[in-house]
Design goal:
The complex is a heterodimer of chains A (505) and B (163).
Chain A lengths: L1 H11 L2 H19 L5 H15 L2 H26 L8 H51 L2 H19 L4 H15 L2 E2 L6 E2 L13 H19 L1 H5 L14 H23 L4 H16 L2 H6 L5 H17 L1 H7 L5 H12 L8 H4 L1 H29 L7 H20 L2 H19 L5 H23 L5 H4 L1 H33 L2
Antiparallel strand pairs in A: 1-2
Helix pairs in contact in A: 1-17, 2-4, 2-17, 3-4, 3-15, 4-5, 4-13, 4-15, 4-17, 5-10, 5-13, 5-14, 5-17, 6-7, 6-11, 6-20, 6-22, 7-20, 8-18, 8-19, 8-20, 10-11, 10-13, 11-13, 18-19
Chain B lengths: L2 H23 L17 H18 L26 H21 L1 H15 L5 H22 L13
Helix pairs in contact in B: 1-2, 3-4, 4-5
C-alpha cells in the first residue's frame, strides 16, 4: 500500500493534476449552488472537457473534483435558500436553513464545510484501507437484500422526518412511490398510469419534482409572507463564521460516527449519498438526548453536521464499487464509468494491477480536493452569503426563473414547466397542512429501484419465498417494521401514562 | 375538519382510483406469456394502493395523535393567517410562470425571460424600472450565453419568425 501511496503522491502533485483538482472543485461549487443542476448533470456536461484532456488520471481527478464541489455547492444553496439542487443535500436543509433564518448563516456554512471536509477525508482514508476488502461485502447483497435495505431506508426516513407524525410521513412516502410508477418501467416496457398522455410516458423528472417540492413552495412563502424573508436577518453581514468550542465538541462524535456509517452506505450500490444523509440524520436524531433531540429541525449543530459528513463520506464510498468492481453504485459514478471507458481505461479488479497510478492518484487527489474545498470555501463564505442581501423584489423572480430553468434544461420540454407549477401548488398546500415533503421525494427516487429489485427477487424465487429463504432480507424487513411501529407505540405508551397520572389513581 | 384530514381524504380517494386501475384495468392488457410471471406490472401498484389506503385512513381518522402543537411564530406559515398573506401576488406570479411556460418556445428565450424577470419584480412592487430592466437584460444575456455556449444546450433566443 505504501508503494501505491507514493505513486499516487507523485502523480497527484504534478502541476497539471493540482490545477485539475482546483478547477474541478471551483466549477462544481459554483454550478452546484444553482438549484436544479446536480452533480450528475454537471459531470455529464464536463465529460467532453475531460476526454479532451486525454490523460485518464487527470480526467478522473477533474471529474471527482467537480463531484465534490457540486455536493458542497448543493449544501450551500440548501442552507441559504432551502433549495437543494441535489437529493443528497435535502437533509442538510432540515437544520441548515432554520439556522440561516436565525441569522447564523455564516456559522451554518462553516459547520457544513468542516463536516464535509472531515467526512470526505475520513472517507478517503477508509477507501484506501477497505477498497479491496469491501468489494466482497457489496457482492454478498442480492436484489432481495437491496429491496429490504431500501424498505429499511424508507421506513427510517418516514419514522424520523415527520414531526412526531409517522402516518403523515408514511403517506407522503407512498405518494412518492406512486408517482414513481408513472411512466414506463424498465422491467416491463409497459406504460402505466399515463392516462394516455404522451408527456407522462417517460415519467416525471426527478429535478422537476425536487424543484416543485422544495424551491417553489419556499419562493411562494417568501411572496406570501414578507416577514419570512426579512427574519433571515443576516443580510450581507455574515460576521460570525466561527462556531463555539462546545458546538465543536458536540460535532466530533457525530462526524466520527457519520463518516464511517456514510462511507459504508455509499459502498452499497444504489444506496449512495441520499440514503446516507437521511439515515445519518435519522440516527443522530434518535440517539440524541432530550434537549438536543428537540433542537433537531430548528437549527441543531448535530443535525447539520450529520448529513453533511455522511453525504461526503458516501460520495467517497461510492468510488469503491466503481474502482474495484467496475460497477457504478450511483448515477454519478455511472457517468464517471462512461468517461473512463471513453478514455480507454476499464475499471475493475485489474485497475489496481495494470494502472495503479490512476487508482492511487484519484485517492490522493480526494485528500487534496477536500482541502481545496475547505480553504477555498471558508474564505469565500461571506461572498457566497451575499446572495441573501439581494433585495426581495429582485431575488424572488430570479429564484422562480432558476426553478423553471432547472426543470426546462433537464428535459427541454415546455410541458415540464406546467407540471412543475402544478406540483408546486400541490406542495405548497401540503406544506400548509404540515405534511413533510422530503419522504415524498425520497420515495420517488427510490421507487424505481425498489420495484426493480422487488420484481427481480420475485422472479428469482418464483414468488415471495425470498423473504423466508434469505435471513438477511427477513432481518432487514423486521427492522423496517420496528422502525415504523416503535415511535407510534412510544407516543401511545406516553399518552396512556399521562392519562393515568391525570386521573390521579 | 382540518386541512390535513381533507388531504388524507383526497389521498384515500386517489388510492382507490389508483387501486382500481391496478386491480381492474391494467392486467387486461397483459400478454399471455407474461401472465406466467410471478410478478406483473400491476403487482407493485397493488401493494402501494392497499398500503396507501390504510395509512391514509389512519391519518383521516386521527388514530395517531400529534404530540402538542406549538404556537406559530411570526415567520412560520399557518393557514389561519391566510387572509394576512399576499395571496394576490402569489397567484399572479404563478400565472406569470404558466405564461412563461407557454410562451418560451414561440417568443424565444431572450424576450420571454426578460418579460418574466421584469414582470415578476413589477408584481412584487418594484417600480425602479431603470434599474430592473438593465439587470434583467444583463442576466438574461449572460444565462443564455452560459447555457447555449458553455453548456451546449440549445435554447432558441429569438421569436419563431426570426429563425
Amino acid at each position: 500500500m505504501l508503494e501505491g501511496i507514493l505513486i499516487g503522491l507523485q502523480a497527484a502533485f504534478s502541476i497539471q493534476n493540482l490545477l485539475m483538482v482546483i478547477a474541478g472543485c471551483l466549477i462544481g461549487t459554483f454550478i452546484g449552488m444553482l438549484p436544479g443542476l446536480g452533480p450528475m448533470s454537471i459531470i455529464a456536461i464536463m465529460i467532453p472537457v475531460a476526454i479532451g484532456i486525454g490523460d485518464p488520471a487527470a480526467a478522473l481527478i477533474l471529474l471527482a473534483g467537480v463531484y465534490y464541489g457540486a455536493i458542497f455547492g448543493g449544501s450551500t444553496s440548501s442552507i441559504l435558500l432551502n433549495a437543494p439542487g441535489v437529493a443528497g443535500t435535502v437533509a442538510t436543509s432540515f437544520d441548515g436553513y432554520p439556522m440561516a433564518r436565525k441569522g447564523q448563516a455564516g456559522k451554518a456554512l462553516t459547520i457544513a464545510a468542516v463536516a464535509s471536509f472531515a467526512g470526505g477525508t475520513i472517507g478517503a482514508i477508509l477507501l484506501m484501507i477497505f477498497a479491496p476488502a469491501l468489494s466482497s461485502v457489496a457482492l454478498l447483497f442480492h436484489s432481495a437484500e437491496y429491496f429490504a435495505l431500501m424498505v429499511v431506508g424508507l421506513s427510517a426516513i418516514a419514522a424520523f422526518a415527520g414531526t412526531g407524525q409517522v402516518a403523515k410521513a408514511l403517506m407522503m412516502t407512498i405518494l412518492g412511490l406512486m408517482l414513481a410508477t408513472v411512466g414506463e418501467g424498465a422491467l416491463f416496457n409497459m406504460p402505466r398510469f399515463t392516462m394516455g398522455l404522451m408527456d407522462l410516458q417517460s415519467g416525471i423528472s426527478f429535478i422537476t419534482l425536487a424543484m416543485a417540492m422544495f424551491a417553489l413552495p419556499e419562493a411562494l412563502f417568501l411572496v406570501l409572507n414578507p416577514l419570512r424573508g426579512s427574519s433571515g436577518g443576516s443580510g450581507g453581514k455574515i460576521e460570525n463564521l466561527r462556531f463555539s468550542r462546545e458546538e465543536g465538541r458536540a460535532m466530533v462524535p457525530v462526524i466520527g460516527r457519520q463518516s464511517v456509517q456514510g462511507f459504508f452506505i455509499g459502498v452499497l450500490p444504489g444506496a449512495g449519498a441520499t440514503i446516507a444523509s437521511f439515515l445519518g440524520y435519522a440516527v443522530e436524531r434518535n440517539i440524541a438526548k432530550g434537549d438536543e433531540q428537540a433542537e433537531f429541525g430548528k437549527g441543531s449543530v448535530k443535525g447539520l453536521a450529520a448529513p453533511e459528513t455522511a453525504n461526503n463520506a458516501a460520495c467517497t464510498g461510492s468510488f469503491v464499487p466503481l474502482l474495484t468492481l467496475g460497477i457504478p453504485g450511483s448515477g454519478t459514478t455511472a457517468i464517471l464509468l462512461g468517461a473512463l471507458i471513453a478514455l480507454n481505461v476499464t475499471p475493475g479488479p485489474r485497475l489496481m494491477v495494470d494502472t495503479p497510478e490512476i487508482f492511487w492518484a484519484v485517492i490522493i487527489s480526494m485528500f487534496i480536493g477536500n482541502l481545496v474545498l475547505l480553504i477555498l470555501n471558508l474564505p469565500l463564505i461571506p461572498y457566497i452569503a451575499k446572495i441573501l442581501a439581494i433585495p426581495r423584489n429582485y431575488l424572488i423572480p430570479f429564484i422562480l426563473f432558476f426553478t423553471l430553468m432547472g426543470a426546462y434544461i433537464g428535459q427541454n420540454n415546455a410541458t415540464e414547466l406546467l407540471i412543475l407549477v402544478g406540483l408546486g401548488v400541490l406542495a405548497t398546500i401540503l406544506r400548509f397542512a404540515d405534511y413533510p415533503l422530503a419522504p415524498l421525494l425520497i420515495g420517488f427516487i427510490l421507487g424505481t429501484m425498489l420495484e426493480n429489485n422487488f420484481a427481480r427477487s420475485m422472479q428469482l424465487y418464483r414468488g415471495l419465498d425470498f423473504i423466508w429463504e434469505r435471513p438477511m432480507t427477513l432481518g432487514l424487513l423486521v427492522l423496517a417494521a420496528i422502525l415504523v411501529l416503535l415511535p407510534s407505540y412510544r407516543v401511545y405508551r406516553a399518552r396512556k401514562r399521562a392519562e393515568g397520572v391525570a386521573d390521579g389513581d | 375538519m382540518a386541512l390535513d384530514r381533507w388531504i388524507a381524504l383526497i389521498f384515500v380517494m386517489l388510492c382507490c382510483v389508483y387501486g382500481y386501475a391496478a386491480f381492474m384495468t391494467m392486467d387486461e392488457l397483459l400478454p399471455p406469456f407474461m401472465q406466467r410471471n410471478p410478478v406483473w406490472p400491476s403487482t407493485f401498484p397493488k401493494v402501494l394502493a392497499v398500503m396507501g389506503a390504510l395509512v391514509g385512513l389512519v391519518v383521516l381518522l386521527g388514530l395517531e395523535k400529534a404530540d402538542g402543537k406549538e404556537a406559530p411564530g411570526p415567520s412560520d406559515m399557518h393557514l389561519s393567517r391566510l387572509g394576512e398573506y399576499k395571496l394576490g401576488q402569489a397567484l399572479l406570479l404563478l400565472g406569470l410562470m404558466v405564461l412563461y411556460a407557454l410562451a418560451l418556445r414561440p417568443t424565444g428565450f431572450l424576450l420571454a425571460t426578460m418579460v418574466f424577470l421584469v414582470g415578476g419584480s413589477a408584481i412584487l412592487g418594484e417600480r425602479k424600472f431603470h434599474v430592473m430592466i438593465p439587470v434583467a437584460a444583463a442576466a438574461t444575456g449572460f444565462i443564455w450565453y452560459l447555457v447555449q455556449e458553455v453548456l451546449g444546450i440549445f435554447l432558441r433566443p429569438f421569436p419563431f419568425f426570426m429563425g
